[in-house]
């Protein structure tokens, strides 16, 4: 009995070739979906913007949709184009590419294959993925005497400065960073209503936009107004804030306003660039030994170091700064003078006393 061959028809839908315009629209929609997916995961807007910025730069170099990127393209890009770029940038860009291709594989692999015939695969593998880990930059803060010199000169300047309100605002914001270790973006995001004078012994600040661990999104915390921060904030709210706005009860009123107003006449929120410029100018005038080196983050390191020097334990400092890991807090603590040497000497004396009578 012989076998006969039957004609088999492909019953799948016959799709017309995709036009270049359709591919451009599809690529735009895919990137928009990527942004929405990352936002739904709770990532901070700054983190998402950073990833999209990395992808845009790779896309501009490649000259075609990222899903067309091959491992050899990855070799050329990281091996030649980014060869001399700092390792932190290389690692961040590689992570953005890897995350984006994970999204493509999960959400759009079938569509991309149907439209282009390509099977989505990440161009970075074990052979060409950038190695290393991004290390935190060591920021040695100024001494207590240097910081006192800075703020004393800055405070005296308030009596003669041309624009009192913004200068006093920048001064108060910098003091909060130095006294309770707030990040500059956390300071900018504070509302007047976030100051809770009735909580705790000194009052507290509700930080609603704290930095999350590993880009997990904003993390809230309550920061007690210790270390003189309560006095700084009371002076600022009572004597300075009214120069920007006269309605303390307006919902959403920023604690640190900008000189610019919104469309309804209310003050907008100050940007971190204004606070950075104010600190840099004050350091240039009152702490010339720190030209261009005193930043808001250095003041945060100063806060951690000074509190540790004054006897606060690392766990409490970790909670104050909003760190997820104690190891991160330990990198913020820079001990001046001879604390380590003194601890070593004390240990040697204790060991010697234990040996008394045994020799």
TrEMBL record:
Can the keyword DNA-binding be found in this entry's annotation? yes
Task: Tell me where on the tree of life, at the top rank, the source sits.
Answer: Bacteria
Record keywords = DNA recombination, DNA-binding
Q: Name one GO biological process term.
A: DNA integration
Q: Where is the Tyr recombinase domain?
A: 143-345
Q: What Gene3D superfamilies is this protein classified in?
A: Intergrase catalytic core
Q: Which InterPro entries match?
A: DNA_brk_join_enz, Integrase-like_cat_sf, Integrase_catalytic, Tyrosine_recombinase_XerCD
GO terms of molecular function: DNA binding
Q: What is this protein called?
A: Site-specific recombinase XerD
- Taxonomic classification, please? Bacteria, Bacillati, Actinomycetota, Actinomycetes, Pseudonocardiales
């Amino acid at each position: 009995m012989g076998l006969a061959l039957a004609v088999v028809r492909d019953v799948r839908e016959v799709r017309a070739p995709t036009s270049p315009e359709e591919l451009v629209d599809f690529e735009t929609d895919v990137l928009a979906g990527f942004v929405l997916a990352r936002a739904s995961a709770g990532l901070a807007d700054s983190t998402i913007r950073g990833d999209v910025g990395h992808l845009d730069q790779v896309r501009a170099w490649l000259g075609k949709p990222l899903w067309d990127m091959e491992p050899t393209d990855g070799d050329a890009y990281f091996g030649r184009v980014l060869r001399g770029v700092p390792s932190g940038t290389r690692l961040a860009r590689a992570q953005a590419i890897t995350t984006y291709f994970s999204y493509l594989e999960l959400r759009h692999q079938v569509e991309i294959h149907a439209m282009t015939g390509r099977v989505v695969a990440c161009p970075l593998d074990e052979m060409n993925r950038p190695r290393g880990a991004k290390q935190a930059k060591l920021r040695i803060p100024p001494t207590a005497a240097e910081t006192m010199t800075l703020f004393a000169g800055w405070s005296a300047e308030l009596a003669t400065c041309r624009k009192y309100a913004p200068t006093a605002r920048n001064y108060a914001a910098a003091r909060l960073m130095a006294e309770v270790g707030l990040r500059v973006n956390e300071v900018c995001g504070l509302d007047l209503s976030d100051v809770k004078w009735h909580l705790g012994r000194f009052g507290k600040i509700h930080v609603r936009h704290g930095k999350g661990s590993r880009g997990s999104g904003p993390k809230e915390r309550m920061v007690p107004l210790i270390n003189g921060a309560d006095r700084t904030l009371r002076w600022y709210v009572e004597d300075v804030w009214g120069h920007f706005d006269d309605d303390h009860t307006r919902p959403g009123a920023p604690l640190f306003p900008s000189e610019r107003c919104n469309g309804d006449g209310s003050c907008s929120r100050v940007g971190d660039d204004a606070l950075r410029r104010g600190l840099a100018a004050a350091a240039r005038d009152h702490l010339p030994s720190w030209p261009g080196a005193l930043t808001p983050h250095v003041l945060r390191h100063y806060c951690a170091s000074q509190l540790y020097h004054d006897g606060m334990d690392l766990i409490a400092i970790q909670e104050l700064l909003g760190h997820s890991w104690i190891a991160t807090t330990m990198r913020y603590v820079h001990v001046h003078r001879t604390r380590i040497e003194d601890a070593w000497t004390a240990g040697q004396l204790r060991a010697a006393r234990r040996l008394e009578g045994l020799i």
